Amino acid sequence: MNRNRKVKVLVVDDSRLSREIISRGISRDENIVVVGQASDPFEARDRIEELNPDVITLDINMPKMNGIEFLRKLMSQHPIPTVVISGMKEKLMESLEAGAVDFVSKPDVKTKKDLEGFLKELEYKVKTASTAKLVKLKNEDSKSRDVEAEPKRDLNKRIKVIAVGASTGGTEAFFKLIKQLPTNIPGMVVVQHMPSSFTKMYADRLNSQTGFEVIEAKSGDEVKPGRIIIAPGDFHMQVRPENGKLTVRCYEGEKVSGHCPSVDVLFESVAEHVGKKALGVILTGMGRDGAKGLLSMKQRGAYTIGQDRDTSVVYGMPMVSYNIGAVEKQVPIDKMGKAIVEYL
Questions:
Q1: Sequential DSSP letters for 185-199
Q2: Is 13 a catalytic site residue?
Q3: Whether residue 78 lies in the annotated active site
Q4: Domain of 100, in residue numbers
């Protein structure tokens, strides 16, 4: 994406009112221009060919073909960065599986405060999506595992915790990663930038589709082999020793590095309390959250891995981490599981 030109957006929604609100709202940003609108997927297909937009905003509930089905077809044939808009939470998570770069919850248009927050969030995510790198979507079995074999050796002697940070594109990147990993690896603690109403749903989805125990964190949860702990939205998460065990602490607080939960907050706590017995992973995402914390982990002796440019949807957080010397090894997402197990 050339930052010297505006992001061209196609707004797809069956509601004329919604199309107008979205178009007028995001057009207030001087870096965005709405080049067209479409009321259903078939009209959207024609407008895409005509206008060649950089980004699409897509409603899910539409006539003739639902947005998820359209998104799957689009991503398998002509991938375009797409931000999905809907009031149905379960469909928003499904849209990420279908190839959406990100999603925004549709607000009550009668509530001015909610509407303004929605438009600001949409502006940011549209601009982020314009930098996304997409590949054609492949039909994969979501429950199949890519791990070659469960290693017989104890994988928990060298490392006690694997800490992971991710943002835009991270939900699917992390899913790809854990499909490569055996279930007898050290416990994982994860910060994925995501609204509070979605982290429990995300954890439940991973729990049902992988061989791991995946939970949304609450203070006191123990970090242990085979368990993945996801930071709850709007809460920072730290690790801490407690009665001879490693547990997590969740608390409300100001944004750190622009986010709550913050990857930096998690990584700094891992550096302090686990040191060289930790492994840090930074995945795709916009911005620099996690870079400073990952550097602290590395300086305390932890092994650190970053997702490479070619497989990152947005090469922001991994790039900054690499540039400041926080990343010991950069690998594509489909090779990251092997890199982790080899170090363990």
A1: SPEEEEEE---HHHH
A2: no
A3: no
A4: 7-129
Q: Are residues 326 and 197 in the same domain?
A: yes
Q: Is residue 150 part of a domain?
A: no
**Is the residue at 192 inside a domain?**
yes
Evaluate if pTM is beyond 0.85: yes
- Which of 86, 105, 130, 193 does the annotation list as catalytic? 193
Clarify whether residues 96 and 226 are in a common domain. Answer: no
Claim to verify: residue 288 and residue 220 sit in the same structural domain: yes
In tens, the pLDDT along 143-185 reads 555 665 455 566 677 899 999 999 999 999 999 999 999 999 9
pLDDT of 66: 86
How far is Cα 138 from Cα 123, in angstroms, rounded to an integer? Answer: 29
Is 95 tagged catalytic?
no
